[in-house]
Amino acid sequence: MSGMTAGTVFYFNDMISIRPYQISSRTLNITEGSGQAGAPEWVLYGMDKDETISSETSPRSKLIHVLEGELHMLIAEQPCPLTAGAAVIVQAGTWHEFAAQSSCKFLQISI
């Protein structure tokens, strides 16, 4: 379970690092059936300030939850600034992109 044990407290912030001038990611296998078609995919990201992820779409909707820092998204050409504790859902097939305004960490769940 990616370093997580049922019944044990863990912190998402501690499970991903921010590396200078890089984007880090870590896929978490936290539900039974992970890896099977239709199972939610949980991925942690760490982005250094000014790092970006180019515009993309996904066949599945995504929930983006910022754990720390500030992340600006562009969703269907609409600005969406997110700070720690904020979340947004990106509908399947919607163009979206990411830009770290400060070093940040976020959780992305494909639903």
Describe it.
The chain has 111 residues and is an all-beta fold. 0% of the residues lie in helices and 48% in strands. It contains no helices and nine strands. Strands 1-2-9-4-7 form a five-stranded antiparallel beta sheet, with no helix packed on it. A hairpin with a 2-residue loop joins strand 5 and strand 6. It is globular, with a radius of gyration of 14 Å. It starts with 22 loop residues before the first strand and ends with a strand. The model has no long low-confidence stretch (mean pLDDT 91).
Task: Summarize this entry quickly.
With 111 residues, the protein is mainly β.
Poorly predicted runs = none
Structural class: mainly beta
Anisotropy-based shape: globular
- Termini distance? 19 Å
**Strand portion:** over 45%
Provide the descriptors you would attach to this structure in a database record:
111 residues; mainly beta; 4-stranded antiparallel β-sheet; globular
Topology:
Blueprint (H helix, E strand, L loop, with lengths): L22 E6 L12 E7 L4 E5 L5 E7 L1 E6 L2 E6 L3 E4 L5 E5 L3 E7 L1
Antiparallel strand pairs: 1-2, 2-9, 3-8, 4-7, 4-9, 5-6, 5-8
